[in-house]
Specification:
single chain, alpha+beta
Amino acid sequence: MVFTGISRTFSTVGEEQYKTIGAFWDEMSAKFGLENLRGLGYNWTSTTIEYVIGLKEGAIDGADCTVQLPDEDWVTVTGKTAELSQMYNEIYQDGALRYEIETFDNDGSCEVRYLR
């Protein structure tokens, strides 16, 4: 699977990424619509995460990053966006991730697909 989009690097210190990635989502949603987007987190370090937002279908204007992802062995978790932090606490109980793909809907639901 190929993931193409607009990339940024965010701090994970003090769980700062929830606020800053949320602002990135707000910016991109204003341009492309929330339900048309998906986000990819990868390349974690002890203090940062690389994050890419792209379209669910088609190419996004201004794309500056392409990531080749495995096609198989993804785990999917669904829930409410308001409970995203709690969802991740449960996901990370079993260890670090290699990749995560997030989608959000206007009704407040979300989906996280991840691969260890």
